[in-house]
Design brief:
- This protein has 17 helices and no strands.
- It has 508 residues and is mainly α.
- It has one domain.
- Helix 1 runs antiparallel to helix 9.
Length: 508
């Protein structure tokens, strides 16, 4: 690991650039996938993906957080031997956890698909998820070791190449074997995911072994190492597990509750696929920077904590929140303007833009919540994040149970629950970050200035977009012209309010 570590700003910039390419490729993949398989199969695919998240949270999520956090701390103190010991211990723990969990899922796939997911056509996809998760665990442990070391280039490039492999593998399998029954189509999609995970996990293991250097430091006693891993992995894993269980329950219940409200089963699965498999991924398209910022911020917070530098941690958290607001709010404003036309052009589905505005608000609040939750994880408050996530998930589930079955409400009840749950999580995370770090709340810098500028750009851009379309211009050039005008107006509005964009986005 002799490669020079990138600074937070350069690391975030590099990850953002690769994430932008990856996000565009992933969006292209989802568009082609939705056209090949249709809204109903997309709904079935969305039913099994929360199961993958649940399995990962049971086995890998907490361990990968421990790898990133502890690797950063060990290297900050010059103990490279302990960092390698942490990775090895986490990989062993992952497979010990996956063996019984995978056996239960495979043997009980019939009952899970019928009684828990409510659709027997998901069984084949469930079985194929297990080898996929096994490879994902190996990949993520090594990836977070790199990120914890401050070496962002290898895992980021591998992740980008993984997108290419997945896109090619899934589309090639579908082109070769379609038409098929919906269950087999879902199986083909998951098989393509397995192929791409083989590539990424093997590549990262090889890169890790090639970059190993003579170990320095005294290492760490096994009992102490296990206790430290457990103290991070348990609350993070529990948080992910409870949140993903609630998400999986919510996903499984939505089509069932829509049917209770008088909608045909096929139409219910299609509605679910449109909102969760098309609209939400479309809104996440511009948010290419969030993962990069979080991956860079958490190890730096852990390092600041290990070196007892609270002022450095507060500055990093505040600047990251400002950067996320500065980037997220105009993206969501623009997507609200062009989203209906973009969704119709990309997915050939009229309903993609139906709940665009409230879901854009959900996405913006989710970005802020994600940063604040990562900050809490970075300063060792994993249990707090778990409680907040569980509370938000329970609120969302309550809305689904109470409102989705009502005639005339349907998916609007789910959307209302998403708004309420995300707003609650955002408020609770902010409160806990302030308590944990002494962070000074800056409402103007974090919200008012970028919010007002984004609202001005969005409203004016909406008017311009409609005028250009009414004058006979196609949606694509009209959208590009609107984007250019709105961006200039947004930056001008920020400048008029005294916000220096360069300083906020530098993240030094």
């Amino acid at each position: 690991m002799s490669e020079k570590m990138l600074s937070a700003g350069k690391g975030a910039l590099f990850l953002t650039a690769l994430s932008a390419i990856s996000q565009v490729l992933g969006f292209f993949y989802r568009v082609v996938l939705s056209r090949l398989v249709g809204a109903e199969v997309m709904g079935l695919y969305q039913l099994i993906m929360p199961v993958s998240s649940v399995i990962m949270s049971l086995t890998a999520v907490g361990l990968t957080a421990a790898v990133s956090n502890l690797t950063s701390q060990h290297l900050a103190l010059g103990n490279r031997r302990a960092a390698d010991q942490t990775l090895s211990a986490c990989l062993k723990a992952f497979f010990l956890l996956l063996l019984p969990v995978g056996a239960v899922v495979i043997l009980g796939s019939d009952a899970i698909s019928v009684y828990l997911l409510g659709d027997a056509r998901t069984q084949l996809g469930l079985i194929l998820l297990i080898p996929c998760v096994a490879l994902m665990g190996v990949e993520n442990c090594h990836k977070h070791f790199f990120y914890g070391s401050g070496v962002v280039r290898p895992p980021a490039i591998v992740e980008l190449l993984e997108q290419f492999v997945r896109t090619f593998a899934v589309i090639a399998l579908l082109v070769l074997f379609l038409p098929q029954y919906p269950e087999r189509v879902v199986g083909l999609i998951v098989t393509g995911m397995v192929i791409c995970e083989i590539f990424s996990s093997c590549t990262l293991v090889i890169l890790y072994r090639r970059r190993r250097r003579p170990l320095t430091g005294r290492g760490e006693e096994g009992r102490v190492r296990r206790r430290r891993i457990f103290s991070i992995a348990l609350p993070v894993g529990l948080n992910a597990l409870l949140g993903n269980l609630l998400s999986a329950a919510n996903s499984a219940l939505i089509p069932q509750k829509l049917v209770e409200g008088g909608i045909d089963r096929s139409a219910a699965v299609s509605q679910f696929g449109v909102v969760c498999g098309m609209t939400m991924p479309m809104l996440s398209l511009p948010i290419v920077f969030l993962g990069a910022l979080n991956l860079v911020m958490v190890p730096r917070l852990a390092r600041a904590r290990a070196l007892n530098r609270p002022a450095e941690a507060r500055k990093l958290i505040s600047q990251t929140i400002s950067a996320v607001s500065l980037l997220t709010l105009p993206c969501m404003a623009f997507m609200v303007v062009v989203g209906p036309d973009l969704g119709k052009a990309m997915f050939h589905q009229e309903g993609v833009g139906e709940y665009l505005f409230p879901l854009a608000c959900v996405m913006a609040m989710s970005c802020g919540t994600s940063v604040l939750a990562s900050a809490l994880n970075g300063v060792g408050r994993q249990r707090t994040v778990a409680v907040i996530s569980l509370t938000g998930g329970a609120v969302q589930l309550g809305f689904t149970l109470a409102l989705v079955p009502l005639p005339g409400v349907g998916m609007a009840g789910y959307v209302a629950g998403a708004v309420a749950a995300t707003a609650l999580e955002l408020g609770l995370c902010l409160w806990q970050v302030v308590r944990a770090t002494g962070l000074e709340v800056r409402p103007f810098q974090w919200m008012a200035a970028p919010g007002l500028a984004a609202a001005l750009a969005g409203l004016t851009g909406n008017l311009l977009f409609r005028v250009l379309k009414d004058s006979g211009l196609d949606p694509v050039p009209a959208g590009l012209a609107t984007l250019a005008f709105a961006l200039i107006l947004y930056l001008a509005a920020l400048q008029a309010q005294g916000v220096r964009v360069r300083e906020v986005l530098r993240l030094d």
